[in-house]
Amino acid sequence: MAYPEAAPVSEGKIILTAPELQRVIDRIAHQILEKTGGAADTVLLGIPTRGEPLARRIADRIRAFEQIDVPVGVLDVTLYRDDLRSQAPRALGPTQLPPGGIDGSRVILVDDVLFRGRTARAALDALRDLGRPAVVQLAVMVDRGHRQLPIRADYVGKNIPTALAEQVRVKLVETDGVDAVTIIRPDEPGGRR
Amino acid sequence: MKHLLSAADLDAATATEVLDTAAELAKVTGREVKKLPTLRGRTVVNLFYEDSTRTRISFEAAAKRLSADVITFSVKGSSVAKGESLKDTALTLQAMGADAVVVRHGAAGAPHRLAGWVDGSVINAGDGMHEHPTQALLDAYTMRARLGRLAGLKVAVVGDILHSRVARSNVLLLHTLGAHVTLVAPPTLLPVGVEAWPASTSYDLDAVLPDCDVVMMLRVQRERMIDSYFPSAREYARRYGLDAARFRRLPDHAIVMHPGPMNRGMEIAPEVADSPRSTVTEQVTNGVSVRMAVLYLLLGGRN
User: Fold this and answer.
1) Which residues of B touch A88 (CB under 8 A)?
2) CATH code for B7-131+284-299?
3) From 2.60.120.1440, 3.30.460.10, 3.40.250.10, 3.40.50.1370, which CATH number describes the B133-279 domain?
4) How many CB pairs (< 8 A) connect A and B?
5) Does any CB of chain B come closer than 8 Å to the CB of residue A89?
6) Do residue B31 and residue A86 have CB atoms under 8 angstroms apart?
7) Regions of chain B with pLDDT less than 50
8) Which among B17, B35, B37 is the nearest to A91, CB-wise?
9) The complex's ipTM?
10) What string of DSSP letters covers chain B?
11) pTM of this prediction?
């Protein structure tokens, strides 16, 4: 796959470069094929914003490796979040299920960073209102720890031990103009103290 | 945004955010479980001093789909009938912990006063001859859904502009969103000072029709026609009613809107009201999505 020329990464320390990130996506695609016995009855649901392009890339790689078309959808979980009242109203992202729906299928939720586990919980609630999948799994690019709920991912791109005040950013060409995973300490520019 | 009192409170970005949010929320209407947990534990009070079917039910449906608790307070059979003032009613609602008050009142400015007395959000659901911002939002939503855009649209608003809060809110919002509004009415039904509004005016419906994308017919408000604004209902229908002949003069893509309730045969002919280019029932459906969006944006986050 060809991507537009990478824009410079301006802040933080780079954990994964663009080629490394691509290899991680390849690996997740292989793992999905392996664990699901060829990705039959499987649907990838990306959680906006960055879960959506990640899900599409994983589906692209599965198609490249085994000529299998995995349906991709988008699942916005904003309306199901339990932390809405802690900040100004969030803009809603799109929700678009694949034409075949999700009933009886293996749904793999795709997100960029697994942190406290609240987004994954909200996604499980949202799924309950949209249908009844046979199995729900979770794929994330980065697991940075600090879970507040009993949630774990089935496919992890990279485990990054972090301090709470650090920020992990997954950047993708589709949304940020560059592929990279960076970590920003609170005392760095762009960091949160 | 804390309250929604006037369509003029919305800048283009905020209004577009409401419409975009409504478009996402509209998908909920199409699915099996038509309910979201978003406003669980929040209380929305519908405070209606004037009769209303669709606006009240629409707000009620919107709040319930977002899992808010809804208390509907209609003035008949309440303490207001015993002479309670708006302020005392407001303090009662405040004491009950209302997170939002949806108010319709016969007096212009009542929602503004209410907003100063309660801690929660106030949503204007129609105040006298002043404003009805959620109607304007659902009208804009319907136009955008049917025609794909708002900027540059030519919209004719026809009928009783003088008494119409729908017309006023629509002019303000459509102007903000880049559409051009022409108000069409007999001279007696145009308000004093209309030349200061961001809209053109015309007395001649036939001249306006061939060049518009949207025709919005307003109800002839018989209950407000105490003075004689036109000689007879028949003459009004002749000159300002949208009958089949006038309907044919519209461009092929143009749509016909009506905020309801309609006087069939008066401002709109039955065959026009029931044509596929009429959006009357869509407006009702869209009203729920738009009001969900307003409730979400007012109550969904930290104020």
Assistant:
1) 301-302
2) 3.40.50.1370
3) 3.40.50.1370
4) 44
5) yes
6) no
7) none
8) B17
9) 0.84
10) ---B--GGG--HHHHHHHHHHHHHHHHHHTSSS----TTTT-EEEEEESS--SHHHHHHHHHHHHTT-EEEEEESTTSGGGGT--HHHHHHHHHHTT-SEEEEEESSTTHHHHHHHH-SSEEEEEEETTTB-HHHHHHHHHHHHHHHS--TT-EEEEES--TT-HHHHHHHHHHHHTT-EEEEE--GGGSPTTGGGSSSEEES-HHHHGGG-SEEEEPP--GGGTTS-SSS-HHHHHHHH-B-HHHHHTS-TT-EEE--S---BTTTB-HHHHTSTTB-HHHHHHHHHHHHHHHHHHHHSS--
11) 0.91
